[in-house]
């Protein structure tokens, strides 16, 4: 399938999930992450859940990161140039939903792309080669292309991979891993 078809398919699949299923699957994903060999880093970028899109509840991952005393980085979208500004999450960080219901920090201590060691990447679909489909604006591809080469890119999904995604462009940044409730897939 191509990206457009996959967006439609996986938005429909997510909408069919109950709140309990989302909670259980999100906790299972966090438990899979705990077993990974990624915890020797310092700066971890995490997306905040868009509840209306029935995304993975990243609160469990947030708790793991805080418990491991990691520096947690969250982002704000700049729609004028499809970029993201990253901020350190602190006790004083104020979060507000933007016009797309994306929870974002209002301001704070900025963190450059090149400082981030691990990125937990939101997605709608992914394939067995590590390609991903997001919402289609390119925010994450722009961001990931500016990270250092050794930055670990980990997709999070409730679902198994597609065989192949058609219509991948040279600007699409591949994942290193994808974590589901039942497995960790390495690309």
UniProtKB/TrEMBL annotation:
PANTHER family: ATPASE INHIBITOR/5-FORMYLTETRAHYDROFOLATE CYCLO-LIGASE, CHROMOSOME UNDETERMINED SCAFFOLD_24, WHOLE GENOME SHOTGUN SEQUENCE. It comes from the Bacteria. Belongs to the 5-formyltetrahydrofolate cyclo-ligase family. Pfam families: 5-FTHF_cyc-lig. The keyword Magnesium applies. Coiled coil: none annotated. SUPFAM superfamilies: NagB/RpiA/CoA transferase-like. The keyword Protein biosynthesis does not apply. Its EC number is 6.3.3.2. Keywords: ATP-binding, Ligase, Magnesium, Metal-binding, Nucleotide-binding. InterPro entries: FTHF_cligase, FTHF_cligase-like_sf, NagB/RpiA_transferase-like. Its cofactor is Mg(2+). This is 5-formyltetrahydrofolate cyclo-ligase. GO terms for molecular function: 5-formyltetrahydrofolate cyclo-ligase activity. It catalyses: (6S)-5-formyl-5,6,7,8-tetrahydrofolate + ATP = (6R)-5,10-methenyltetrahydrofolate + ADP + phosphate.
């Amino acid at each position: 399938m191509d990206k457009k078809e996959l967006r439609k398919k996986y938005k429909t699949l997510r909408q069919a999930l109950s709140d309990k299923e989302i909670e259980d699957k999100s906790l299972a994903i966090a438990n899979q992450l705990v077993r990974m060999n990624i915890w020797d880093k310092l700066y971890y970028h995490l997306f905040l859940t868009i509840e209306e899109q029935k995304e993975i509840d990243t609160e469990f991952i947030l708790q793991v990161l805080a418990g491991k005393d990691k520096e947690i980085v969250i982002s704000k979208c700049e729609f004028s140039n499809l970029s993201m500004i990253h901020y350190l999450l602190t006790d004083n960080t104020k979060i507000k939903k933007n016009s797309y219901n994306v929870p974002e920090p209002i301001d704070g201590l900025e963190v450059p792309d090149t400082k981030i060691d691990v990125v937990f990447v939101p997605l709608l679909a992914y394939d067995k080669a590590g390609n991903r489909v997001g919402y289609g604006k390119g925010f994450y591809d722009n961001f990931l292309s500016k990270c250092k080469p050794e930055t670990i890119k980990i997709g999070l999904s409730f679902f198994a991979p597609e065989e192949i995604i058609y219509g991948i462009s040279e600007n699409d940044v591949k994942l290193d891993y994808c974590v589901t409730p039942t497995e960790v897939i390495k690309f």
